[in-house]
């Protein structure tokens, strides 16, 4: 009987290109405080958010994915036809099926690339990068596009005091491809389903259609419990990602945590004792919390503003609903 042949993969994988899309509509705190009986000062102090971006009607999830991806593909110096796989990390694609990734792969002009969505909430982008790394090294793909994209404004209740000020929209993308040197460290990832209820849709679709006044199944969040878990547990996960990559905090150039809350970022940096030369992503101040999109958006801003450069060593750590989390060290494209 003939044996199965396996083509070898690349020795390593790396991020080859980066792109992002920020919706055009800037929404300052002053615009949302009345509906939630809050204040600009409270929101700034508790979350670090000054303003956020919400998508307009034309800025669909698909459109934002495609815009971010075109920039990432161009930045990588490849043609979209070289993409073997498109992964979209999102929780705000409004169709249960098919995956938005299939539309994105088509719009980009790939040659029928494999395409699927990943549901790991705010940790989805880092899950996608980990999968792309393994796919390239195992030989199932040479170039993988990983997109984090959300239109959370569609699933946010503007009158919910606990979440209306935090969530926002946008997209970020990276092209992952083969390399002779390691550009993506081992992923440290996991989930804690015991805390499933801490961030979730208020209802599932079966409840929505039987409701007397049907509403979109908005997100609800037990913010303070998530805050305490993330501030405490995620620094340990980030440290494990450093250890597994064989680098120390001293070796890092940039720290790009999920942009959940500026105070969580500060708490993690303190507990990891990050040296002062490590630049820290603070995109949340002007962008809000964009879940799966937040890390590539934040890294792209750092590159634009000269805080991160190609070849820098960066640490990603992401966490959110599930509770799902993932962290890895990468070389900045
Ligand atoms: O991205 C996925 C993962 N998500 C996260 O990581 C989010 C994590 N959580 C957070 O970022 C924070 O918990 C929030 C920013 C959402 C809230 O900050 P907090 O410091 O945890 O506030 P809290 O919920 O403990 O509320 C503190 C106080 C309460 O008043 P009392 O009981 O101290 O008198 C609340 O009633 O603030 C009050 N409060 C508000 N006041 C003004 C709660 N929400 C608001 C509001 N405006 N929007």
H/E series, N to C? EEHHEHEHEHEEEEHEHEHEHHEE
Any idea of the CATH class of the largest domain?
Alpha Beta
Compounds present?
Answer: oxa(dethia)-CoA
Helix content: 25-40%
Strand count, sense and closure of the main sheet? 5 strands, mixed
Main sheet: strand order: 1-7-6-4-5
Choose one word for the global shape.
globular
Detailed description of the structure:
With 333 residues, the chain is of the alpha/beta class. It folds into two domains: 12-179, Peroxisomal Thiolase, Chain A, domain 1, CATH 3.40.47.10; 188-331, Peroxisomal Thiolase, Chain A, domain 1 (3-Layer(aba) Sandwich). 32% of the residues lie in helices and 24% in strands. The protein has ten helices and 14 strands. The chain has helices at residues 29-32, 40-47, 61-76, 100-108, 124-138, 205-210, 223-245, 262-271, 284-287, 294-304; strands spanning 12-21, 25-28, 51-54, 85-89, 114-118, 144-151, 169-179, 188-191, 199-201, 219-221, 254-257, 279-280, 313-320, 324-331. The strands form four sheets. It has a five-stranded mixed beta sheet with strand order 1-7-6-4-5, sandwiched between helices. The chain has a five-stranded mixed beta sheet with strand order 8-14-13-11-12, with helices on both faces. Strand 4 (85-89), helix 4 (100-108) and strand 5 form a beta-alpha-beta unit. Oxa(dethia)-CoA (UT7) is lined by residues 36, 38, 42, 46-47, 122, 161-162, 165-166, 199, 223-224, 226-227, 230, 260-261, 264, 289, 291, 320.
